[in-house]
Amino acid sequence: MIWLFLVFAFLSTAKVQPLNIELLFTQNITPQTSDIFLLEDLNGNPINLTQDLSSYYPRWSPNGRKFAFVSKRDGDEEIYIMDIQTGKIRRITHHPGGDSYPAWSPDGRRIAFLSCDKGKWKICLFDFLTDKVRFLTDGTVKGYFDWMPDGRRLIIGYWKPKGFYLLDVDRQNPARRFEELERIPIPHDLTYIYSVACSRDGGKLAYSACVGKFGVSGIYVMDLRDGSVRNLSRISEKPFHANDDSPRWTPDGRFIVFASDRDTNRKGYDIYIMTSDGEIVKRFNLVKSSYCPDVLDPNYAYSVSSPIDLKKLTWGMIKRGVISR
Length: 325
Hints:
The protein is mainly beta. It has helices spanning 2-16, 232-235, 307-319; strands at residues 22-30, 33-39, 47-48, 55-60, 66-71, 78-83, 89-91, 99-104, 110-117, 120-127, 132-135, 144-147, 153-159, 162-168, 182-184, 192-198, 204-210, 217-223, 229-231, 244-249, 255-260, 270-275, 280-283, 290-296.
């Protein structure tokens, strides 16, 4: 009987034991200021990376060498990239309106983001090969989004009309109507979608949404193969008044990292990890309100070239006649 107990204990531990992941997240320094922190060890101390009190929403590059983030250090919201090893920061947007919510393409060559252009929020694409930005939508098609694993499409969550929409980033003209795009219906009521995260294998979609009252959000997971949806916040016994937000998958698809204000004994948000079935396996107990997490597993990081290397490679291929101009 002892060996059966040991086998059961091993299997239980294997189920809930998180991988050797690294987390980026935003933390409020004061109620009006925020900065970006790194947890290299899930049981270690956070490292302050950006140190300018106006930075938030970090997103790992696929190879884990850099991350994109939003900052107001130059006046309005712009998107920047920091090299983890050198600390060097590069600004990639220069718009008079705000730019936010960066998302790296799976191959690391492009970043999609939201930009406010003449009062309209549009989805844009920055290309490291050309250093240019172009609009993917005209302001009518908008919403929170993530990349599909094929690197050709964005999946956009929107509530009017309710659904997830697939946008081909290589289409010639900006999308003007949701009706132009392939639609995946959402089989439950919702009032607003706050964030979208596609699993690495493209089979599942995690998103945070509110049903009824604004400001009270939960995390749902849709199986993109059969359209079924599970409310993970209900499974994890989230209090009715609380918000679960910003879900991000671990690359192996076993866990979801998210932010929540479900603890009534503290002000603001903390970071949690739950299984893909909704079982909470870790809370970080960070000192200050922390949110917008992103996940890197070095074992799953894509080996992609840096933007500079891509330019050199492309120019070399042009000179050798491999690519025609």
